[in-house]
Every structure is written in C-alpha cells, then in structure tokens.
Amino acid sequence: MKEEKDTYSKPRTRRSTWGRIIGGDFLATEFVRRQARLLVLIMVLVLFYISNRYECQQQMIRIEDLKKQLTDIKYNALTRNSELMERSRQSRIEEYISSRQSDLQTATTPPYLIK
Description:
mainly alpha
C-alpha cells in the first residue's frame, strides 16, 4: 500500500513557477544572465516609448488649447473689423460731422484722375 501512495503523490523538490517568479529565483537562471544586456536594452526602449508617448499627448493638448485661442482671437478680430467698418461708413461719418456742427460737407462733384 505504501508503494501506491508514492505513485500518486508528486515530490515537492522544485518550487512552483509562480513561487520562483515572486521569489526572484528566475533571475538567477543561465538564460537571464546571458540575455541581461538585451533585457536592459528592451527596458530602456520601453521607457523611451512611454516618455515619448506622454510628451506627444502633452503637445496634442497644447495644440488643441492653441487652436481654441486662435478661434477666439479670429472671432474677436472679425467683430472689431465689423465695428470699424460700421463706424467708417460714409453715412455714419456724415452723421458724426453734422452732430458736431462742422462746416464740412459731402462733395457734390465726383473725383477725377490726373494723368
């Protein structure tokens, strides 16, 4: 009966895979030691990728903010331009001059070109 019990139970000489990973024993294997430079290079590239992506996102946020500011400035300039056009119309200028009781009058003869 003792022989049957031995055939069914596994010997626990090796630790489980998760136990080796958590304990850090896998870092001492020959494969990891041989590939240490490659692993360090991969880690550096991953860090570079993450920082590059973060910088790109920051620049995209800045670009969107600048686009909103540009739109606001364009609308503001358009509003000011229309106000200036309204104030510089001939009829508005004539009203302004007549309200000041000035001697200026609108020309009755059209201008002509001197060649």
